[in-house]
């Protein structure tokens, strides 16, 4: 006579096994730390260090300048994510890259979202309404600085071109 | 916004329609995600730095007290420049929006460039080059937060003219470099490619000149100036090819590989 015990034991074993695996798997996934997509945000570190400086405190002009530099790095990162994400998505679909890289992109995107809000809030704390403009300012500054660097490189380019020409 | 009413048209409503409630304050900014904020906070690494002149208004590296330090791998030049600008303009509380333009500076650039053009037309190429260089330097003093288009166009125009002047005095390398910079500044402007091709032709590098023209034509296929010079280069190359085949190396005019033009 078959006991009811055998099917019950079977069900407990199967579902218990499934449950154990799923909980272990989820715990492992949650604990996994993805390699950050961007290197250390040094402009942000400097800005916060400047804020924390007390004797003597950093003057406001310096803090504002540091905040603009922070925003400039943010702008580069945002542009970089916007550029990389579609390409990475295609690579992910093809299986050319792993989930790790994709997860780190998503994490970076989320972090940047928060970062932008923080910078805008900081800017508004200095001057009301600056938060709406600071990223625009930052992106113009990036472009202008690049052009200025190009202009400064002209003498070096000349001697380089001259050397190529002589050889 | 349509309002749903439960009371019929004839019956007395149990409530009054006051003025609409004031709209909720504009949600200009969502509060940042606290979880991500914690992540950001956790990633913070304090920076070792020192404050420098004027009035602690600049940042130097902590170990060597340098603005730009290779040992500490830091470069605070840009930061300190902006800090000084903000410090010296005390009525400037923050960088203004990009559309606030320094008109005086634009005028100075235009004037200097015009002086250069006049000297160029008069055949005083050396003086013209000096003027153009000065105009480029004035343009680069524009506040960094202004629209990039302004600096881009000013620099491109001035350097394109300077390339032409360098070409006239026979400094082909400087001309080539200026043309290259013009192309990097305004990639879709035909003038840069034109100047580059001219300089390369003078240096007897017609193949490279042809490539430059073709890149320029890819941006602006209908450009007459570029089409013309391309035809001349092709003609010249074909002739040289023929010369190589029929004649020996005795080329008729070794000193001038340039097609006759402007």
TrEMBL record, chain A:
InterPro entries: Sec66. Pfam families: Sec66. GO terms for cellular component: Sec62/Sec63 complex. It comes from the Eukaryota. GO terms for biological process: post-translational protein targeting to membrane, translocation. PANTHER family: TRANSLOCATION PROTEIN SEC66. This is Translocation protein sec66. It comes from Daedalea quercina L-15889.
From TrEMBL, chain B:
SUPFAM superfamilies: TPR-like (SSF48452). Residues 1-32, 241-262 are annotated as: Disordered. Residues 1-17 have a biased composition (Low complexity). It comes from the Eukaryota. GO terms for molecular function: Hsp90 protein binding. Residues 18-32 have a biased composition (Pro residues). InterPro entries: TPR-like_helical_dom_sf (IPR011990), TPR_rpt (IPR019734). Keywords: Repeat, TPR repeat. This is TPR-like protein. It comes from Daedalea quercina L-15889.
